[in-house]
Each structure stands twice: as C-alpha cells, then as structure tokens.
Amino acid sequence: MRGKFLTIEGTEGVGKTTNIEFIKGWLKSREVSFVSTREPGGTPLAEEVRQLLLATRDEEVCSKAELLLMFAGRAQHLDQLIEPQLAAGNWVLCDRFTDATYAYQGAGRDMGYELISNLEATVQGDLRPDLTLILDIPVEQGLQRAGERSQPDRFEQEHTVFFKRVREAYHNIAKQYPQRCVLIDASLSLPLVQAQIGDALDNFWLSLEERG
Q1: CA dihedral of residues 38, 42, 45, 48 (deg, nearest 10)
Q2: CB contact at 8 A, 168 and 103
C-alpha cells in the first residue's frame, strides 16, 4: 500500500520544528514507518539549492529565479526521496511543500498563481499532500519568536507586509482545500497547539480506517 504524504506549513516563528517532533511521536505511537524531510532541501542536491535560496547576498534575487530554484529543488526531492518512499509504503512528513510556494512566492512576492500552478503540474503531476497542517500565528508574534532563535535568513529579513500577504495566502489555501488542510492556532500554549494537532491526526487516521 502506498504511503501517506503529510506536510506542515506556516509563516516564520509558528513552531514547526517543535511540533514536527510531536508528530513524529504520534506516528511512532501508531507504528507507522515514515521519513521526515524539509523544503527547500531533503536531498544533498536540494540542500545545496536551499543554501542558495536562504543566503543573504548583495545581489537582488529575481523572483522568477527564486521560484525556479524552488521547483528545481522540489523536482530532485520528489525523484530521489518523496516518491520512492511513498511507493515503498512509507509515510513522508515534510516541513513545507508547494503550498509554501503559493504563499511566499505567489502572494509574498506578488507573482500570482498561474506560473506556479503550471510548474506544480509539470514537476508533481497529480501528487498532492494527503494532509496539510497549517500552523497560524499573528505575523508580529511569529517574527518576534523567529528573531529570538537565530540570525535571520534572506526570507526572514522581509518586511511585515510581506509576511501578512503570506499569512493571508495560507488562510485562503485552508479555505480552498478543507478536505486536506487543517488550520492550527499556533498562538496558544504548546499543550493546546499540540492538542489541536493530535485531533487533526486522529481524525485523519480514523478516515483512513473507515476507507479500509
């Protein structure tokens, strides 16, 4: 049986790293065989693309170049890791995927969605996540959290208005795809955030059992 594809999305400072560890624990408790990965990244070549994308630089990065790099890394990631793992029956847990491209490049960079949709179809075919958890937090709160943990990368140096467009895009994605997306209020205490995540995962598991 083919594995399931779970993705975790959200703007800066939503707590993806901490909550991915919680999800790993949930999967282990269900004795699910899985791999955890991230985007951009996930393979040696795709991790090199990640470094190109996140590095601060004096040269202005063209939005189309940024977008094409995202999908170049994604194509390698899909070919070398995601698709083989799913085909082998393993679940894949991915920190961000194409929803992030719609949010960050489509909305944040104000590129629109047509080109992204075309690249998505070319690179992914019919592949879409089975479940997407979107961790949501007010932009100012998230940026404050992110600023406390490390030096900001090229994306984290963007202005507040950029991240407000990204957050709005994530809300729109959640509304557009309610069958696979669950919006999680990540502004609450960690136990309450993880209770929401646990409920979403339990409901997903139940739906799989009902389908047999």
Answers
A1: 40
A2: no
- The residue type found at 68 is L
- Residue-wise burial string across 47-64, b where 16 or more C-beta atoms lie within 10 A, e elsewhere: eebbebbeeeeeeeeeee
Q: Output the six-digit token pair for 37.
A: 């990965």
Q: What does the pLDDT look like over 138-196, one tens digit per residue? A: 998 888 877 666 666 667 667 889 999 999 999 999 999 999 999 999 999 999 999 99
Single-letter code of the amino acid located at 114: E
Q: Using DSSP, state whether 156 is helix, strand or coil.
A: coil
Q: How far apart are CA 46 and CA 69, in angstroms?
A: 9
Rounded to 5 degrees, φ, ψ at 6 are -110, 135
Angle between helix axes 114-124 and 63-77 (nearest 10 degrees) is: 20
Round to whole Å and give the CA distance between 172 and 47: 29
The answer to whether 92 touches 82, Cβ cutoff 8 Å, is: yes
